[in-house]
Design a protein that fits this description.
Largest interface: A-B, 9 and 12 residues
CATH topology of the largest domain in chain A: Non-ribosomal Peptide Synthetase Peptidyl Carrier Protein, Chain A
Number of domains of chain A: 2
Strand content of chain B: 35-45%
Number of helices of chain A: 4
Strand order of the largest sheet of chain B: 1-2-4-5-6-3
Helix content of chain A: 40-55%
Structural class of chain A: mainly alpha
Radius of gyration of chain A: 15 Å
Number of strands of chain B: 6
CATH topology of chain B: Thiol Ester Dehydrase, Chain A
CATH superfamily of chain B: Hotdog Thioesterase
Distance between the termini of chain A: 11 Å
Strand order of the largest sheet of chain A: 1-2
Number of strands of chain A: 2
CATH class of chain B: Alpha Beta
Radius of gyration of chain B: 16 Å
Structural class of chain B: alpha+beta
Mean pLDDT of chain A: 92
Order of helices and strands of chain B: EEHHEEEEH
Helix content of chain B: 10-25%
CATH superfamily of the largest domain in chain A: ACP-like
Largest sheet of chain B: 6 strands, antiparallel
Number of helices of chain B: 3
Order of helices and strands of chain A: HHEEHH
Oligomer: heterodimer
CATH architecture of chain B: Roll
CATH class of the largest domain in chain A: Mainly Alpha
CATH architecture of the largest domain in chain A: Orthogonal Bundle
Strand content of chain A: under 5%
Low-confidence stretches of chain A: none
Shape of chain A: globular
Distance between the termini of chain B: 28 Å
Shape of chain B: globular
Chain lengths: ~130, ~170
Amino acid sequence: MAPSREEVFTTVQDVLSEALGVDHEEVSHESTLQGDLGAESIDFLDIVFRLEKAFSIKIPKGELFPEDALSNPEFVDGDKLTPAGLDTLKSAMPHADFSQFEKDPDISKMPDLFTVRTIVNYVEGKLKAA
Amino acid sequence: MRWIWIDTFVEFVSGQRAAAIKNVTLAEDYLHDHFPGYPVMPASLMIEGMAQTAGILVGEVRDFQENVILAKIRLAEFREYPVPGDQIRYETTIDSFDERAAVTSGRVLKNEQEIGRVDLIFSHVNNADRSLGLPDHNFVFTEQFRHLLATARLLSSNGDRKPDEE
């Protein structure tokens, strides 16, 4: 039987506290990985490897944290994502909550899309599909 | 500059595990400063020793075609420090390996007793990553490593040293 959402969250808490050296209590659903928990680029890869092991899942490159979604210059206009860019990112990250970001799709705010909830959503979807 | 912190491989199983040893000797300069009158092997150099053992294990998987960069120290803990006369053994296994990176976990032993653990992540950096400003040649597995690679290749596929090549 697939674990409950709360069980998934607890395991994600374990993974993030080990990968980022933060206390359990610091890891809430709303925490952003970079801003609140201090993740750097290599940490994202570490998190992916740890999630794969903790949940016995395979996470293909770019699926949880899309890296190439914005490589097309048509997706970016100055500091903002174009509507086409936003659509592409949304379809690449169905597990993320875009409600705040799409009001002002400033590229510098993109890291805020990567929250603990984003990971929990992703893992839940992955486990259901398995 | 020479920056080799392992003396030889004593086990090497391609893509799986390796073990290397380092003999600590008072002939090495750094021990006279770390610390004066109290020479102990610095933990940072044991991390480097493990990184070289594990990095060569990881690099060998793709025949050293890619640069293998130490990207993250996942865990480093030591309970005891080796002193001159001790032999350090670095044992490492590959836990995950893909086109982006490799994860290794390892034990550090002193005279056959476990004294620490070092878990690492290596990034694979190849010519496609030149936008990072890295040189286009292999800058990790240079000549300095050739001797060590030779010791690794002396080992048979099951990891034991071949008796006829001792």
